[in-house]
Design brief:
Belongs to the protein kinase superfamily. PAN3 family. The protein is built from 16 helices and 11 strands. It has 448 residues and is α+β, with helices and mostly antiparallel strands. The strands form 3 sheets. It has a 6-stranded antiparallel sheet. The protein has a 3-stranded antiparallel sheet with strand order 7-8-9. A two-stranded antiparallel ribbon has the order 10-11.
């Protein structure tokens, strides 16, 4: 093992058997989670290039929103027209009131016949559920050249529909069924959302692969709620029948995902699809699909019966959520540690080698500040025998942690010319840093 030089006094604290050291990855957020967050941040600030041909068809302002960015994938509009009866388009936009991004869905070609139609969707604005994309507001605007209806929802960057994730022409040679644990996770989330919706006397009607967003690890949310309430305001309303249709749509969705084929629910394929589920998945899943898709003889199925049927799976999902929460709290703890150490390094940066303070150009080179400078070298500027820099992240993290705690352990600091040796504790160094930083703060307050 190489020896540290030219400061041999530091070697005892740095040269040690690396067995027992924490892996460096344990100090930082996992790379996969980091990449997910970075990708989401990039999408939050996505704007259209000035040369993008789409920009000429998008207004600079829409009501109280600006920086509109189209979110539709190629060909998405054609499919959307089949869902709501009108072609729709979706944009990310920034609200001028709170500076937050939202997703705005435009209903193209729809003409609002009555203001009461907007009130029909008012209940959705008050509904908050972890598996429903919240509706924020509905408004009409002429900014696109006509009186167009718009629905504003929460925006989840990086989300995708389960249609694009699981049903977009999979390669049949490498076809893999969705694991049953994932299917049950989706089912329990959707049943939870439907339970809340139906208990409020509402109807979902958007249980379709194109309207369910995958916003995280097996995390799904119903998207586009409230639209049917407005566009079909004048249609006859039978609450019990519509809520039963929600359950029928749920059954079709589960079967579609289990077979990973939109064609699985057609009349000619239905029996074969159910047989495939029977041979591939558990009896519980098979029974649930059959219950949801079977035409009722007397009483219509209801969401409470579905909750009873999947109660055991709800406990499993609860266990998964607690485990995932533990994992996220662990990652959060790492970032808390990093933030705490960053504040220490920032204070060191403010103090070390400050060119002028209170008209004294040598302020950072005298008194307690000189100790802080030597300590900075102790952390960051050590070298090996051959003069190459020591880049030991573990040493940096360990040293800063001891400084933050103000432990009584003493270290030996050496000047760059090797003429001065100073023994000092982390506790004393912490006091020196706090005192020097307080001087800078008081000077700033005095000038203000």
């Amino acid at each position: 093992m190489q020896q540290y030089s030219p400061y041999p006094q530091y070697s005892q604290s740095l040269i040690r058997n690396k067995q027992g050291r924490r892996n460096m990855g344990s100090f930082f957020m996992s790379e996969s989670l980091k990449q997910d967050i970075v990708h989401q941040k990039q999408l939050l600030y996505m704007t259209l290039d000035p040369n993008d041909p789409r920009i000429k068809n998008i207004p600079p302002m829409l009501n109280k929103y600006h920086s509109l960015y189209p979110l539709d994938q190629d060909g998405a509009k054609e499919n959307q027209g089949k869902m709501f009866g009108y072609v729709t388009s979706v944009y990310k936009a920034i609200c001028t009131q709170d500076g937050l991004p939202y997703a705005i869905r435009r209903i193209e070609g729809f003409r609002l016949s009555s203001e009461y139609a907007l009130q029909a969707a008012e209940s959705w604005r008050n509904l908050q559920h972890p598996n429903i994309v919240s509706l924020k507001e509905i408004f009409v605007s002429k900014e696109f050249g006509d009186n167009t209806l718009f629905f504003t929802y929460d925006y989840f960057p990086g989300s995708e529909t389960i249609e694009s994730k699981f049903l977009s022409q999979p390669n049949q040679t490498s076809f893999q069924p969705i694991s049953e644990s994932v299917l049950w996770s989706f089912i329990t989330q959707l049943v939870s959302a439907l339970k809340t919706i139906h208990s409020l006397g509402l109807v979902c009607r958007v249980i379709h692969p194109s309207k369910i967003l995958l916003t995280g690890k097996n995390r799904i949310r119903l998207n586009g709620v409230g639209i049917f309430d407005v566009v079909n305001y004048d249609s006859p309303r039978n609450l019990a029948q519509f809520q039963h249709e929600d359950l029928l749509l749920l059954g079709r969705l589960i079967l579609t995902l289990a077979c990973r084929s939109a064609a699985s629910i057609t009349a000619q394929n239905l029996s074969n699809s159910i047989e495939y589920v029977s041979n591939t998945y558990s009896k519980d899943l098979y029974n649930l699909i059959v219950y949801l898709l079977t035409k009722p003889v007397i009483n219509l199925p209801n969401i409470d019966e579905v909750v009873t049927m999947i109660s055991g799976r709800l406990l499993q999902e609860n266990n998964y959520l607690h485990t995932y929460t533990d994992d996220l709290e662990t990652e959060l703890g790492k970032e808390y540690e990093n933030g705490r150490l960053f504040r220490l390094v920032t204070k060191l940066g403010f103090i070390n080698e400050r060119p002028l303070y209170d008209m004294d150009p040598r302020w950072s080179e005298t008194g307690d500040r000189y100790l802080i400078k030597l300590f900075r070298d102790y952390i960051f500027h050590q070298v090996y025998d051959d003069g190459t820099p020591v880049l030991d992240f573990y040493h940096v993290v360990e040293t800063l942690n001891k400084l933050d705690c103000g432990v009584d352990e003493k270290i030996l600091l050496m000047s760059r010319d090797e003429q001065s040796l100073l023994v000092v504790s982390y506790k004393d160094l912490k006091k020196c840093i706090e005192l020097a930083f307080s001087e800078l703060v008081s000077q700033k307050s005095h000038l203000n």
